Amino acid sequence: MNLDFIYKRHSVRKFTEEQVPEQTIKELIKAAIHAPSGKNQQNWHFVVVTNKEKIAEIARIVEMKNAELSTYLRDEAKIKGFKGTVGYHTVFKGAPVLVLVYAGPYDTIADMLLADGVMPREEAIKYTKPNPGIQNIAAALENLQLAAANLGYGTCWMTGPTYAAEEISAYIGFKKDGYHLAAMSPLGVPATDKLSSPPRKPLEDVLTIIS
Length: 211
What we know:
The chain contains ten helices and four strands.
């Protein structure tokens, strides 16, 4: 059984300046949108930024939002910890391409239960846990990253910077009713071919087979 394409994907945070051809980007997005989608709603939208100055400005927006949000914290350890994440949340600034993935509306039984208000809210809210609308986005981004790695490109799954989602969306001028920025990934040629991933938990710790 050859599953090598799975293990080619790593979180890449440093890139060369080599550009990614537009046709390649389109093929990667095409791979993304062939991910499974609950009720086939395909509640995703991809915004791809290839302008180096704009990518740098998006990183600056994240830095500014990080600084702003830190002023709402009181515990010094939390402030230091949160400010310390900004470097990780802006690693995309060195990439030639930035992929922003937006999630759109997805109606579930939880939405109906909460809207009708018959079931107590604290009970109805538990049905939101599967969050299939976000699962669709996750599946699509995973497809994109596996396809990119198979073609020799690097990516990095990022959700941290989404605390600046509104500011980023305003800057790039993207607005689509009901959609919000859910995740992003840099895309480019890795700066090194010596790539690795953190160890995974043993299979027996995360697998239960019921026969």
